[in-house]
Amino acid sequence: MYNWIQEIIETPIAHRMQNEVKNDVIISFGADLIPFAIAGESGTNRARGIPQQISADNDIDAVKAWLARFSDKKTTFDTYRKEAERLLLWCTVQRGVALSSFTHEDWLAYRKFLQDPQPTSRWVSEDGRKLPRSDPRWRPFTGSLSDSSQRQAGVILNSLFSWLVGAGYLIGNPLALSRGRKRRISPRVTRYLDDDLWSEVKATVDGMSRDTSREREHYFRLRWLITLCYVCALRISEISSNTMGGFFRRRDQDGNDRWWLEVLGKGDKIRIVPATNELMAELGRYRGALGYSQLPNVGESTPLLLPIGGKPRPMTRGGIHEVIKRVFKNTGDRLRAYGPEFIATAELVEQASTHWLRHTAGSHMANRNIDLRHVRDTLGHESISTTNAYLHSSDTARHMEIESKHKAKW
After folding, report:
1. 8: nearest Cα among 74, 62, 46
2. What CATH number did the domain enclosing 256 receive?
């Protein structure tokens, strides 16, 4: 059912077939047939009589033209393709309309759909698993979208429609009719692990078997990954895309050498993160288990995290996600064994993802009274508030405070 959308970028749009079925020319995508009426060539919102800036003659080619702008930014490309793909599927499979016939009323219906994608068997993967797109069990969703994910979908799709209007492909943007609302900042972060749950996750890792060399490699890799997520508060994409060559030493004004990690992060912005003594010790253990030198070399191309077997290639975001989710699942199993009163806690930790560790890091740093400017700069946030945009913290002071107060404590 999803083959034609899954190939939205990888393969060109299929050739039109010359035969007609009830006066509807059809477009073939492998085993699937898309009626011409919802392919977009005759969409009710198509711009006519004005110069078109792209060569697309149907909705899929138009979306491909929009996505091509992000082809050199994998994280952005994957995120934008996901949202465009979901909307295209909903329009054609569920709503029976072309993207270029999408109306404001359709948008309101789609927003409700994002809150609870139904029917579940069609839209949501079993057990909320993230499966490869080539897997027949793949589904567009792993569950209902959070409020922030719904907002993000709206921002991305608004960008898509605005661009198609500017390109002369569509007459207007149906999302522009929605009343703009100023985003309200959540009063508190809820997707994080408190101190007790954080201790349970570490206990799960510490309880791993280390009898064989492969088991030890799994153990040290997981300790390194969890420490990297927690101490450095890295995003999953930053772990996947950065290398050990980003570690460097810099002497502070007191003559002390301090390790840092330079990270290329969201929006292609570079930041430096304190590489504490605890973090460097974990790195040394992980590298030692792989037969590498304890400390990385300047400019070293070794990825921050390697597949088991030490193959010198980066792990995918999906691979890292699965490793972390397995830890949370095992932690949930351990908690359930404590008794029925721990079921709710087990269910909570099983909902966690890699990004929860980033939220956990930020929450724990703030709760330990680390200067919020240091937390801001370490997480790579634009600002704490508008006023904080004018504040700048000393890198040395930030390193010293995080070094002394923020530890994984294995």
Report:
1. 62
2. 1.10.443
